[in-house]
Structure formats: C-alpha cells, structure tokens
Design brief:
The chain is α/β, with parallel strands linked by helices and 251 residues long. The protein has helices at residues 14-25, 38-50, 68-81, 107-128, 154-174, 197-200, 202-210, 220-230, and strands spanning 4-8, 28-34, 55-59, 87-92, 132-141, 180-186, 242-245. It has a single domain (4-245), classed as Rossmann fold (3-Layer(aba) Sandwich). It is 42% helix and 18% strand. It has a 7-stranded parallel β-sheet with strand order 3-2-1-4-5-6-7, sandwiched between helices.
C-alpha cells in the first residue's frame, strides 16, 4: 500500500497535534510546521514515529509570506528524502487569537490576524499546490464563529469567513485535478489557543458546555478524528463544503 503524506500547519500543539496523531494512526506520514516551540513540535514528531509513520517538523512563521518559498523548498527536499515527488493532504490549521471589542481593535491587531488566517493560507496553498498529487485533499480550518457571533472576535471571525469563501473558489479551480477542498469549523475547544481561555476559565467552560447540545466543551481529539476522516478517501466526493464540528454549540 502506498503511504500518503500530509502537511499540517501549526501541528506542534492543539488541534494540529491531535490531527497529526490521528493521521499517523491511519498510516499517513507527516510534515508539521511550528513557529517557535521546536521542543513541542519534535515531541509530536516522536509520537508520530512511535506510531510507525515518518515525520518531520519544519519551522514556518504563518504570519509572514516571506518564508513561504523556503518552506516549499524544504517540503520538496523532504519528499525527495522519502522517495516521493508529491504530497497528498494539506491542512491549513495554523492560527492565533486576539480577543478585542470592535471599537478597540488596532490596525496592528487587524493585520496580524489577516496575515495568519487569510494571506498566509492563500499564498502558502498557492505555493504548495504544484507539489500536491492529483486527487489530493485540502482542508482549511475555520471557526464556529462564522455562524454565531460572540463579542471580541469581529476580526478573527471575518478572516475565517473569508477562508470559507476562498475554499469554494479553490474547490472550483482545483477540481479539474481531482483535488477536493473543504473547510472545517470547530466550536470551542480546550486548547491553549487564545491564551487557553476556554480550557482554563471554569466559568467560560461551563457556559459553553451549557450552550452545547452534547453537554461539554470539545477536546483536541474530537477535531483530530474529524480531520482524519475528512481528508480520507471515504470523503473524496465531498468538496466545497463547510463542516461544523461544535457538538451542537448555540443551536
């Protein structure tokens, strides 16, 4: 059986790390990115290798397009080392959170969120698609905040909304190569994202649980399992779709 190769941005922690472990368990080799915490990234690499898959961590600042050409070349080199010419799956997961009321958002905050959540996703995908196998899978990570609104997330949610529109255009333009492109919108998850407010603030956690049909806040493995499923061959006929994984939050 030919092993598949996946690239997960922001794969050193949270949802990305969970997805890496789930994909490795399904026999997929991994290239993950990290911004600063190489220790955490290489811990995920070790976990993937323990599962019998190949893995490598490559540094990438998702907030700057300047490093994308070097990253693409590093991917090309890794593929060659693994005896492959193409990779199969791209999960655009890297992200950051800034919580600020609309009236207080600064241009610097706006640009930081735009660069990470929209500009980098656009140009990184553009750079990597030539290295992707026909019939590949692209999964962009959005947010439940594009469906429901909570104060303080106007910029973050706007950028995720743009990613949901971009997903449709990518699906249309890359469909001739058999590449499917979907968007996954998680609800609130217990991670260190945004300073770990959902995970560490008991009041916020309890409130979200009370507003979720399944009665709890999501965990990284909840999302990792869904990511692994959506990029599998079982979902090859699904494209240009927004799939929300929120446990029924705010329904």
């Amino acid at each position: 059986m030919i092993r598949k190769i996946a690239i997960i941005t922001g794969g050193s922690r949270g949802l990305g790390a969970g997805a890496a472990r789930k994909l490795a368990a399904r026999g997929t080799d991994l290239i993950i990115t990290y911004k600063q915490n190489s220790t955490a990234a290489h811990a995920v690499v070790d976990q993937v290798i323990e599962q019998g898959a190949k893995a490598v961590a490559i540094q990438l600042d998702a907030g700057s397009v300047a490093g994308i050409p070097a990253f693409a070349e590093a991917v090309r080199s890794t593929l060659a080392q693994w005896g492959a010419e193409r990779f199969d799956v791209l999960v655009n997961n890297a992200g950051m959170g800034i919580h600020a009321a609309f009236a207080d958002v600064t241009e610097e905050q706006f640009d930081a969120l735009m660069n990470v959540h929209l500009k980098s996703v656009f140009f990184l995908t553009q750079a990597l698609v030539p290295l992707m196998a026909d019939g590949g899978r692209i999964l962009n990570v959005s947010s439940g905040l594009t469906r429901f609104a909570l104060p303080g997330y106007s910029v973050y949610a706007s950028m995720k909304g743009a990613i949901e529109v971009l997903t449709k255009y990518l699906a249309k333009e890359l469909g001739t190569r058999g590449i499917s492109v979907n968007v996954l919108a998680p609800g609130a998850i217990e991670t260190d994202f945004g300073g770990g407010r959902v995970r560490d603030d008991t009041q916020i956690n309890a409130f979200i649980a009370s507003q979720t049909a399944l009665g709890r806040v999501g965990l990284p493995d909840d999302i990792g399992t869904i990511i692994a499923a959506l990029v599998s061959d079982d979902c090859k006929w699904v494209t240009a779709q927004r799939i929300e994984a929120s446990g029924g939050m705010f329904i």
